Amino acid sequence: MLKIPFSFFPRRIVLGLAGTFKNAGGFLSAFFPALHEDLVQAQITESPRSYMAIALSVFITNALTVFVFMQAIAMLAKINLLFISVLFTFVVGLASFFTIIFYPRILSGKRKKLVENQLIPAVRQILIELKSGVPLFNAMTSAANGYGEVSVEFRKIVNKINSGVPEIDALSEATRTNPSMQFRKVLWQIQNALKVGSDVGDSLESILDELMKEKIDDIHRYGQELSPWAMLYMMFAVVVPSLGVTMIIVISSFLGIEIPTIIFPAVLAFLIGFQLFFMSFISSRRPLV
Question: Is the CB of residue 56 less than 8 Å from the CB of residue 24?
Fold first, then answer.
């Protein structure tokens, strides 16, 4: 079931309204040529035309909701907020629209990380079994369990082969629908070996070495990034708040100015928000091992 993010209305209403925007969705989808690939790799079954119609539906419903809410506040407060309402409505509508458009890319990015997290152990198991004389199909069947999202992908390939799809075609389809370039490289090596009749084990051994080098490079790169990020953290989480508050107190005492009571809660809120943001950012940059 398609999850619609950042929508103020229930899914049923949004989808019902989206049916009236399919022609406009088909026109706008031409401006986002990568949307089809993003939808496929995010495992969303909607066509680009239908998905763009959903984005338009969310744009209109969210914008109208914000406009009505702002105007209701203006009427209760007896002030004119028409310009601010229109501006804020436009901003929220655009934010909703582009959130929907880029949501498949976010999903495919998460799926990519999950696949690459267990890719090296899965490929190593397949390689060991191939070197032991086990057929490729049986080796992929053994990798279809115990390796998270990688096992899910190999299970799809095995099920397609069991249903009568040729082995190369099943591998080609998995390559097209997977967002991980590393996983694609593995499947490309297997396909090329099958097409030319060479040893699949030798091809997998070379790509496994390449994957391990890339993983080591990612770890080294992450380690090199930590030093400047740590300096930035010290500046904004320690130095600037402490010196800033001290300077405010000193200057206000010399000038006889009373410090607003909102200053210290605002500094505390900033520090909490910055800490949460920084931890989330560093966690997202860390390579999966």
Answer: yes
pTM: 0.74
Which residues, given as ranges, of the chain have pLDDT below 50? none
C-beta separation of 124 from 208 below 8 A:
yes
Amino acid at 223: G
Cα–Cα–Cα angle for 250, 254, 256, rounded to 5 degrees: 110
Domain that includes residue 255, residue range: 223-285
Q: What share of the chain is helix, strand, coil (3-state, %, to 5)?
A: 80, 0, 20
pLDDT for 155 equals: 92
CATH number of domain containing 206: 1.20.81
End-to-end CA distance of the chain: 31
Q: Which of 184, 212, 240 represents a domain boundary (last residue)?
A: 212
Average pLDDT of the chain is 86
Distance, in Å, from the CA atom of 62 to the CA atom of 104, rounded to the nearest integer, reads 20
